Amino acid sequence: MYTTKKVKCDKTPELDMLAHESGRVYCKVVSLLWKVKRKKGFWLSQGAVQKYMRLRGYNLHSQTIQAIIQSYFDSLKSYFRAVQSNPDAKPPKRTPHFYKVRWIQNGITFKDGVIRLSNGTGNQPIILKSDVKPVYVEMYFQRGSYYFSLVYKVHTPPKRETG
Predict the structure, then answer these.
(1) How far from the centroid of its chain's Cα atoms is residue 91's Cα?
(2) Which residue from 7, 23, 24, 60 has the highest number of Cβ atoms inside 10 Å of its Cβ?
(3) Helix 62-85 with 13-40: angle, nearest 10 deg
(4) In angstroms, what is the C-alpha Rg of the chain?
(5) Where on the phi/psi map is residue 41: left (φ > 0), alpha (ψ -120 to 50), or beta?
(6) Distance between terminal CA atoms of the chain?
């Protein structure tokens, strides 16, 4: 079981740059998939897109880029399920200027109550305070501020058998 803690941060140029860079990655994934679909007639796999995006010079952690790609493919899988019951359903093709940023596994370092979120080689990390290491962290923009959702794993007691 998981629980989420929200941390509010003021809008800064560094956070804007991260959200914009994330939007660039998402737009590139959308345009790449649609270009291949239009010209070749098939959808690229998630692994092929990750290999293609690996060598592009984005100012984000590599696993953050993988998380952005995964979020698009989750939307695409949802489309393929929806089209079975509704043939008029359309695949996701919106290209946002800014997009959420997600840090997973190796992009998060926790030590002495401080969470360090890596932003790739040569970029300053984001520092947050917390008492537990999160499973993943997601940054999004809402109503003039940035929010960090820290997702923690919570121990759940085993179910007891009754009667």
Answers:
(1) 19
(2) 60
(3) 50
(4) 18
(5) left
(6) 25
CA distances from 84 to 34, 87, 88, 110 (A): 20, 6, 10, 44
CA-to-CA dists, residue 68 to 78, 101, 154, angstroms: 16, 8, 25
Question: Nearest Cα to 37, choosing from 26, 48, 50?
Answer: 48
What is the Cα–Cα distance from 91 to 143, expressed in whole angstroms? 28
Examine the pLDDT at 112 and tell me if it is beyond 80. Answer: yes
Six-digit token string for 90: 């359309």
Strand partners, 114: 111, 129
Residue 130 corresponds to which tokens in the numbers above? 């917390």
How far is it, in rounded angstroms, from Cα 152 to Cα 135? 5
Partners of residue 101 on adjacent β-strands: 139
Q: How far apart are CA 68 and CA 75, in angstroms?
A: 11
pLDDT tens for 3-16 read 888 989 999 999 99
